[in-house]
Amino acid sequence: MASPLTDERTIPSAADRQRPPARRPGLGLLVLLIATFMTALDFFIVNVAIPSMQVDLHAGTASIQWVVAGFGLALATGLITAGRLGDMFGRRRIFAVGLALFTLTSVACGIAPTAGILVASRVLQGLAAALMGPQVLSIIQTDYAGKAQARAFSMYGLTMGIGAVFGQLIGGLLIKADFFGLDWRTCFLINLPVGAVTLLLVPRALTESRAPQRPRLDVTGVALSTLAVVALVLPLIQGREQGWPLWTWLCLALSALLFAEFAVHQHRLGRRGADPLVDTALFRERTFTVGVLAQLVFWIGQASFFLVLALYLQQGRGLDALASGVVFTAIGAGYMITSTTAHHLSARLGRHTISVGALGMVLGLALLWEASHRIGTTGGIGWLVPGLFFDGLGMGMVIAPLTTIVLRGVTPQLVGSASGAVATIQQIGGALGVALIGIIFYDAVGSGLPESFPHAFGLGLGFLIAVEVALAALVLLLPRKAATTG
Hints:
Helix content: over 70%
Order of helices and strands: HHHHHHHHHHHHHHHHHH
Low-confidence stretches: 1-19
Structural class: mainly alpha
Number of helices: 18
Strand content: under 5%
Shape: globular
Distance between the termini: 17 Å
Largest sheet: none
């Protein structure tokens, strides 16, 4: 493996010298970013549409929960396997298949006549998104080099953030517009024209690439990793709503055993010279190991922050989905400033870009904590804007540089495996964060009176501040010369 400890800003890596030139690098990156945006948007936009869905489909609470959970669970379980499929059959080909299926399943969601069909369509949509996710990271890593790669990762981070931050606003606008009387269905059907046009561009925009030595699919590894992720993520998604019954704790214990068995199985295959799904050789590099842990910590904070902020704004302050989405734009403004320049910041600060970003988020969260206690349930909502803006600034300095650090020194043979592992960690971190902050937030809310939300929000922010401090400290364990740019 090429060592990420080398100062790659001056010495091209072996992977850089081996990679083919992108067919049309600008158009190719646009295609990858559109797919990334569609996935991120569909993960968050559904929260805005839930009330309309429930009324229109006469759906119960459990069904509506699975509209959200089914997508996330399917996405998390499919990512590692999808990374290996790209290595085997071609990353462009698997990306195109995923994009086509994502577009079709989005239509299925948009025309679903019952809650059951909608849930099934969302599960299939999550699996399609899983096919695309690792290929995006792998193609950026293999088709772009040096400064072009740094810019590509920067734009990838920007796109993920825009989908997450502006998802609620976009959903609110679509529902408010009520095109052709479709109401919430537009949130899914909008993917049809976007996905179809993007799919047509794939052959002319992206080059095909696969692992230099075509690996075989580790079926046992697929089964173990899928079961392990399901056993971990399912109770995290459903546990709080059901009061943490015995089955949730049994699943969590089982997930630990399954992950341990998966690790042993992968190590055994690697020693035999076979083709593990996740090559344990990746974890011999401190950069990759610490970077993956940092990814886990960061995403624990992200999904949980968006959850408690939306709950505070809508249930504690009485804002509708559109007004709440407008408040979210304060995060987006800060995020766009730093995420578009993250590769320049990384060239100067290296690994400390991430630490500075994490501490910027701490400042933003602290300002939010002070503002929420000041305004309670009746004060001016504008007091939240400075904290949200600084939080967005910090986010923009973390997402792309952190992804670049994890993947920078990975060889072409292992890039699909590494990309699948990173994408899976992101999803697991999000589910874990939502579960942890849910315990804190909902216990404090109690009976759900609006007066209890500022206090619950403040407690949630305290948890998030601790998470970001941990991220800043963890980054210090990275090698000093770990490059975050090309």
